[in-house]
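Bug report

Summary: structure tokens for Mitochondrial chaperone BCS1 differ between web form and batch submission.
Environment: batch mode, default settings.
Steps: 1) Submit the sequence below via batch. 2) Compare with the web form result.

Sequence submitted:
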Amino acid sequence: MFRPRPTQPSQTAPTPEAGPSTPPALTSDAAASGIDVPTQPVAGPSAENQSFVSKIMADNPYFSAGAGLMGIGVVLTVFRRSLTLGTTFAQRRMLVTLEIPSKDRSYPWFLEWMAAQSGSQVGKGKKPMGFRSHELAVETSYKQHENGSSEAVFNLVPGPGTHYFKYQGTWFQVKRERDAKLMDLHSGSPWETLTLTTLSTYRHLFSSLLTEARALAEASTEGKTVVYTAWGVEWRPFGKPRGRREMGSVVLGEGVSERIEKDLRSFLGRGKWYAERGIPYRRGYLLHGPPGSGKTSYIQALAGALHYNICLLNLAERGLTDDKLNHLLGLVPERSFILLEDVDSAFSRRVQTSEDGFKSSVTFSGLLNALDGVASSEERIIFMTTNHYDRLDPALIRPGRVDVHEILDDAAGEQAKRLFVKFYGNSTTTTQEGEEKGRILREDETPLTDEEVEQLGNELMRIVEEERSRGRTISMASLQGLFIRTGAKESLDGIRELCKSRGGEKAPYV
């Protein structure tokens, strides 16, 4: 017995807005035959017109499990890499970088130039190009005044990090990077690198910028003499540049200064002559004499007259070896004298262990090879000084290593007179209006006429010559100290007390 089904609440299907509908006859026939026929109307294109990708996405179970998302990730990765490669290629084509390591000579020049941009002008007629940075480093220096006082000068420069500045209308990026793992064994400072970046079109501005930085650095040493000392295997300035000493401030024996200066100027103008004859372009000078005769002072004055600097080298310095000596002599800064003071004392305590080896930092054979060996450098001027000429090995002072020998002896009578007139006679002072002559007087000193100065100078010459005939001499340093302490007339009374005997020798120093 069949029970009638309960009547379900009728649901009205939404009426389609457009599209074909299924005929009633087909619906009843399909229902009678047991075929499911959708009662909802189908809108849009038919199933046969669907795309291949849509069918895969609808029917493929792997895509629905996550393969589709992986494919999208691959596409995005490829796009990101393409964008990175494109950016790198554009940077290589459009940007140019310049790396300046801390070991390069232009590194301190550029840092000084950067410090000058913070508030000062570089050159005349140029606008200040200061730039601001939130990462700063300080460089402290001392400025010495003419009256003897000094003050500390603090220069704020960009520290490690990224900075930007504008130069000649073009923007530059500066990266100052510091590697704490790499250290300079000599100074103990970490390794640093400056990297400058700008548009490739303006790469020529790098040369202009570095030239300007060098000019700024050289402006601080203009009219001065820089003294370099050996710092490991490189030369570094020692202290602040010194004012150039006038040639007339050092009084030597008659004709000595003129002979040395003439020979040196002749050597500087014969570079081509040396090259044509295959002769090494080197010159060595030996100044010997008793202490206080003005050897080092004269070298300093000569360097100032020729606009040269001085490289001071101590052969007895700890850690200096034959290899370092050769390296230092091959890297001497341009336009510099090499000064070996008291060269006799470097090997005075040496103990010979073999035919050419010694127990010292620098061997004697190593010094000879550095001065005139196969690996010795060209275009070099060496000055040596010694107080004991007889202690020098003949191999050290032979021609080719030392070309000019000059003795700077104790004061002769004529030499002492010239120093006296220089102290108490008329002096020439250069001012803005020109050269002016006047006397430099002590507060308790009465002015002297030229005739009086001449008479006192002749008396001084007579006393010095008389003492020399007795084997008693006085050094130029002692005379200078006496003239500084006393007046013109008082100085004559203390001359004989300062004269010292040299073991009964009456002949000039040899």
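Above is the batch result. After comparison, the two runs are identical; trailing whitespace caused the diff. Residues 413-427+446-501 form one domain. The chain is about 35% helix and 20% strand.
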